[in-house]
Specification:
With 99 residues, the protein is mainly α. Helix content is 86%, strand content 0%. It has four helices and no strands. Helix 2 (38-67) runs antiparallel to helix 3.
């Protein structure tokens, strides 16, 4: 597969994964977080999205110039897989909904 085709496929997969993740997070927040503190939980989510997200995007260009775009994308994949693995390592997460 040519490089642009791989990049397009990866972007499509990442977008689909982000949509599923956002849906699941929103569902869990609505089901599990008491109504009186949902605003605070949403504020922390917004902090990550609107403050830390652009910071990461700002650093992506210079870092890819140092390590290379392919290596940086590979590190991003490794980071995501590790984060999912850590979350799934908690038994309470795996049992969620099996009440």
């Amino acid at each position: 597969m040519r490089r642009p085709a791989r990049l397009i496929a990866a972007a499509l997969l990442a977008g689909a994964g982000a949509a599923v993740c956002n849906t699941l997070v929103t569902t869990v927040i609505q089901r599990e977080i008491p109504a009186e503190v949902r605003g605070r939980v949403g504020a922390f989510g917004s902090l990550g999205a609107f403050a830390l997200g652009p910071l990461g995007l700002t650093l992506a260009g210079p870092v890819s110039g140092v390590v290379g775009a392919d290596r940086l994308l590979g590190l991003g994949v490794l980071w995501q897989l590790t984060a999912v693995g850590v979350v799934l390592a908690f038994p309470s997460v795996r049992r969620h909904g099996a009440r």
